Protein backbone atom coordinates (compact mmCIF):
# COMPACT_ATOMS: atom_id res chain seq x y z
CA UNK A 1 0.00 0.00 0.00
CA UNK A 2 1.22 3.49 -0.82
CA UNK A 3 1.89 5.95 1.94
CA UNK A 4 -0.84 8.31 0.69
CA UNK A 5 -3.39 5.51 0.81
CA UNK A 6 -2.40 4.69 4.39
CA UNK A 7 -2.78 8.33 5.46
CA UNK A 8 -6.17 8.55 3.75
CA UNK A 9 -7.27 5.31 5.40
CA UNK A 10 -6.10 6.52 8.82
CA UNK A 11 -8.07 9.78 8.53
CA UNK A 12 -11.10 7.91 7.21
CA UNK A 13 -11.05 5.48 10.12
CA UNK A 14 -10.60 8.39 12.55
CA UNK A 15 -13.68 10.05 11.06
CA UNK A 16 -15.67 6.86 11.56
CA UNK A 17 -14.45 6.28 15.11
CA UNK A 18 -14.92 9.91 16.25
CA UNK A 19 -17.80 11.36 14.19
CA UNK A 20 -18.19 14.37 16.47
CA UNK A 21 -14.73 15.51 15.32
CA UNK A 22 -15.52 15.10 11.63
CA UNK A 23 -18.79 17.07 11.62
CA UNK A 24 -18.33 20.82 11.41
CA UNK A 25 -20.59 23.25 13.18
CA UNK A 26 -22.48 24.54 10.16
CA UNK A 27 -23.84 28.09 10.28
CA UNK A 28 -27.56 28.68 10.44
CA UNK A 29 -29.20 29.92 7.23
CA UNK A 30 -29.63 33.68 7.02
CA UNK A 31 -33.05 35.24 6.74
CA UNK A 32 -33.84 37.13 3.52
CA UNK A 33 -33.01 40.83 3.45
CA UNK A 34 -36.71 41.73 3.76
CA UNK A 35 -37.22 39.38 6.71
CA UNK A 36 -38.78 35.95 6.97
CA UNK A 37 -42.39 37.04 6.51
CA UNK A 38 -45.51 35.83 8.24
CA UNK A 39 -45.96 32.70 6.09
CA UNK A 40 -43.94 30.48 3.77
CA UNK A 41 -45.16 32.21 0.59
CA UNK A 42 -43.98 35.59 1.83
CA UNK A 43 -40.63 34.11 2.81
CA UNK A 44 -40.21 32.58 -0.67
CA UNK A 45 -41.07 35.95 -2.23
CA UNK A 46 -38.42 37.60 -0.05
CA UNK A 47 -35.86 34.99 -1.16
CA UNK A 48 -36.90 35.69 -4.78
CA UNK A 49 -36.26 39.39 -4.22
CA UNK A 50 -32.75 38.60 -2.99
CA UNK A 51 -32.20 36.32 -5.99
CA UNK A 52 -33.25 39.03 -8.45
CA UNK A 53 -31.00 41.52 -6.66
CA UNK A 54 -28.08 39.11 -7.10
CA UNK A 55 -28.90 38.63 -10.79
CA UNK A 56 -29.02 42.43 -11.21
CA UNK A 57 -25.61 42.79 -9.60
CA UNK A 58 -24.19 40.08 -11.86
CA UNK A 59 -25.64 41.81 -14.95
CA UNK A 60 -24.10 45.12 -13.86
CA UNK A 61 -20.76 43.41 -13.26
CA UNK A 62 -20.82 41.92 -16.75
CA UNK A 63 -21.72 45.34 -18.17
CA UNK A 64 -18.76 46.89 -16.36
CA UNK A 65 -16.42 44.21 -17.67
CA UNK A 66 -17.74 44.74 -21.21
CA UNK A 67 -17.13 48.48 -21.04
CA UNK A 68 -13.64 47.92 -19.61
CA UNK A 69 -12.84 45.31 -22.28
CA UNK A 70 -13.90 47.69 -25.04
CA UNK A 71 -11.89 50.55 -23.50
CA UNK A 72 -8.77 48.36 -23.35
CA UNK A 73 -9.33 47.46 -27.01
CA UNK A 74 -9.55 51.13 -27.97
CA UNK A 75 -6.41 51.85 -25.92
CA UNK A 76 -4.59 49.09 -27.80
CA UNK A 77 -5.75 50.49 -31.13
CA UNK A 78 -4.41 53.93 -30.12
CA UNK A 79 -0.94 52.43 -29.86
CA UNK A 80 -1.40 50.70 -33.21
CA UNK A 81 -2.25 54.08 -34.75
CA UNK A 82 -5.80 53.05 -35.73
CA UNK A 83 -7.62 55.28 -33.23
CA UNK A 84 -7.03 58.59 -31.46
CA UNK A 85 -7.21 59.58 -27.80
CA UNK A 86 -10.56 61.26 -28.37
CA UNK A 87 -11.95 57.82 -29.25
CA UNK A 88 -10.91 56.55 -25.82
CA UNK A 89 -12.57 59.58 -24.21
CA UNK A 90 -15.75 58.93 -26.17
CA UNK A 91 -15.64 55.26 -25.16
CA UNK A 92 -15.24 56.19 -21.49
CA UNK A 93 -18.07 58.74 -21.67
CA UNK A 94 -20.49 56.37 -23.38
CA UNK A 95 -19.43 53.53 -21.04
CA UNK A 96 -20.14 55.61 -17.94
CA UNK A 97 -23.52 56.55 -19.44
CA UNK A 98 -24.37 52.92 -20.15
CA UNK A 99 -23.39 51.88 -16.63
CA UNK A 100 -25.43 54.74 -15.17
CA UNK A 101 -28.52 53.69 -17.12
CA UNK A 102 -27.95 50.06 -16.07
CA UNK A 103 -27.69 50.99 -12.39
CA UNK A 104 -30.83 53.14 -12.69
CA UNK A 105 -32.80 50.32 -14.35
CA UNK A 106 -31.72 47.69 -11.81
CA UNK A 107 -32.61 50.05 -8.96
CA UNK A 108 -36.06 50.70 -10.45
CA UNK A 109 -36.61 46.99 -11.12
CA UNK A 110 -35.86 46.04 -7.51
CA UNK A 111 -38.23 48.78 -6.35
CA UNK A 112 -41.01 47.15 -8.38
CA UNK A 113 -40.45 43.80 -6.72
Automatic annotation (TrEMBL):
Signal peptide (from-to): 1-24
UniProt keyword terms in alphabetical order: Membrane, Signal, Transmembrane, Transmembrane helix
Record bears the keyword Transmembrane helix: yes
Keyword ATP-binding found: no
Transmembrane segments: 51-75, 87-107
Matching InterPro entries: Integr_conj_element_PFL4702 (IPR021356)
Protein name in the entry: TIGR03745 family integrating conjugative element membrane protein
